[in-house]
Amino acid sequence: MDSCNSSASAKSFFLVGFPALQDYQLPLFLVFLLFYLLILVGNIAIITVVVVDPKLHKPMYFFLTNLSVLDILFTTTTIPKMLAMFLVDAKTISFQACFLQMYSFHGLTVTEALILVVMSYDRYEAICNPLHYAVKMTKRMNIQLAASAWITALIIPAPVMIQTSQLAFGETTKVYHCFCDHLAVVQAACPDFGATFQTFLGFCIAMTVSLVPLMLVVVSYTHIIISILKINSKEGRSKAFSTCTSHLIVVGTYYSSIAVAYVSYRARMPIDIHVMSNVVFAILTPLLNPLIYTLRNKEVKRAVKQFIFSKIFPLTKKM
């Protein structure tokens, strides 16, 4: 192991990846390349149909485009480097690049949690206050809500990232992960009180930025369900609830993957399982979001079909 020096001497980190899967680098490359392409195609398709279809120019779909842009950025911070690791064994990452990746990954993680809260608030206003919905959810309000989520989320991780960069590392430090996750980097630092405190602080912040948004989503949907149950007609209740199912599935997927990653860490599972659970969290939601909204949302499904057959594969006119 390298001798511990000040963080100024740390020139690079060595990403170990999956220790038990070192002989399966090419299959891993192909699998993650497929996932990345599906994420890009799916989310770009969502953004495109929302932009080009006037019928989708609604607050709900404005926030959906934010989620799709977020998912593209979120996966782009980690997967390209992982692909290089698996294909050409490029496991070394510079000190600066590692902390930029770490900040981007955790900042965008928080952004996703807050965007999901904003989307639940939009559904709350649409169902609980339908008469005032158009007045409250104006274009300006939508932009303010989305911007607040992005800016707040990018501010929250900054102090922790700066403090972590001041820890002592060896000149080349092994990080047992596929990317620069905060916990993995802190565990790779020279053992001292600062590293222990950073682990505790990172855990507290992670729980806060996960549980508080989750509680806000739960509160919103509690009011939404109460309002739906007050609707007299069965058809009206079904229609109101159908506008929320896609978002609920996305929220469930997002927090389930977080829970799996948390349990794998707290249960002291083998390093490969812990790394894989974090990688699944980084990939699963961006991969499933376009599929969920395409299959569950009738308006998005219609817009996608119309775009495919009118723009990509236009039907030939009858002779």
Can I get a quick summary?
By secondary structure, this protein is mainly alpha-helical.
The total count of strands amounts to: 5
Give the end-to-end Cα distance, rounded to a whole number of Å: 75 Å
Strand order of the largest sheet: 3-2-5
CATH fold field value: Rhopdopsin 7-helix transmembrane proteins
Order of helices and strands: EEHHHEHHHHEEHHHHH
- The general outline is globular
| Low-confidence residue ranges | none
Largest sheet features: 3 strands, mixed
Beta content comes to under 5%
Find the structural class using helix and strand composition.
mainly alpha
CATH class: Mainly Alpha
- Indicate the radius of gyration in whole angstroms: 22 Å
Give the overall average pLDDT.
85
Total DSSP helices = 12
CATH superfamily: Rhodopsin 7-helix transmembrane proteins
